[in-house]
Amino acid sequence: MADREHEQRILGRIARMVEDERVLRDALASGRIDNATEQRRLGELERELDQCWDLLRQRRAKSEVGENPDDARVRPSSQVEGYLE
Q: What spans are recorded as compositionally biased (Basic and acidic residues) (predicted)?
């Protein structure tokens, strides 16, 4: 699969998670879920988003220096969580 296709798949996953966040917030606002459920699921989504963005950055960095972007790997959320803070 071409680099661009991989990148588009990752970006598509990110877009779906952002939509999931919106749906969760709407569900809380309408009373379909409670605050604890929303917070738990939002935490899971934030960790997954951090991992996706990290993978995308890894792939782009490897491409820029002439390495194989397919060598990039999803890192544990504990490793990537603080990168954006």
A: 61-74
